[in-house]
UniProtKB/TrEMBL annotation:
It comes from Streptomyces griseoloalbus. GO terms for molecular function: hydrolase activity. Pfam families: DLH (PF01738). It comes from the Bacteria. This is Dienelactone hydrolase. The lineage of its organism: Bacteria, Bacillati, Actinomycetota, Actinomycetes, Kitasatosporales. The keyword Iron-sulfur does not apply. Residues 3-187 form the Dienelactone hydrolase domain. Keywords: Hydrolase.
């Protein structure tokens, strides 16, 4: 599969590059756009401040420009936390999207969003301070109404960014389970889904 993988508000840190390498080792082609133009942050607060300063529209513009050269191939959009929200926005607007892999995050869904059985897989901590149970229930229903085929996996007791070995949130068991399921999801897309 052709995958574009977006980083979290910490920026394009080593964990994102390692995740991309893991996907490549499984036979996928992966791009990791740097939406923060080389900046990385040590705390989520610093990353959020940069995100607010740069603005949602500018960050989405960067994401669209980064994905555009590959979108004709039929991309799987993927991301971590903030990057997942970016991936979701792009996937719902790309009729050639092959799938959507969300890790640690979701985003608002436009009222008029419509997809043709887009495969979507979400991995999120339980509980997660950024993805509350009420929010996730509403998100799941809205994604279904938009036409997505959604799977949700929760990881009890894990921290928000539990797949990142360099952060206090890291949970090795949850991270390995996530990668096992996510790689199976990508394999199934490769086997079962015709190009759109």
């Amino acid at each position: 599969m052709n995958i574009v993988l977006f980083h979290s508000t910490y920026g394009l840190r080593p964990a994102v590059r390692r995740a991309a390498d893991r996907l490549r080792a499984a036979g996928h082609e992966v791009w990791t756009p740097d939406l923060f133009e080389g900046r990385t942050f040590d705390t989520v607060e610093e990353g959020m401040a940069y995100k607010e300063e740069t603005g949602k529209d500018e960050l989405l513009r960067r994401a669209v420009l980064a994905a555009a050269p590959y979108s004709e191939r039929g991309l799987v959009y993927a991301g971590f936390s903030f990057g997942a929200s970016v991936a979701q926005t792009l996937a719902l607007g790309d009729e050639k999207a092959r799938g959507l892999l969300l890790v640690h995050g979701t985003s608002d869904i436009a009222e008029n969003a419509s997809v043709d059985e887009l495969p979507v897989q979400l991995h999120v901590a339980e509980p997660d301070p950024f993805e509350t149970d009420d929010w996730l229930t509403a998100w799941y229903l809205r994604m279904g109404r938009a036409g997505a085929d959604v799977e949700v996996y929760r990881y009890a007791g894990a921290g928000h960014l539990y797949t990142d070995p360099d952060l206090p949130d890291y949970d090795e068991e949850a991270a390995e389970a996530t990668w096992r399921v996510a790689l199976g999801f990508l394999d199934a897309l490769e086997e079962d889904q015709p190009a759109r």
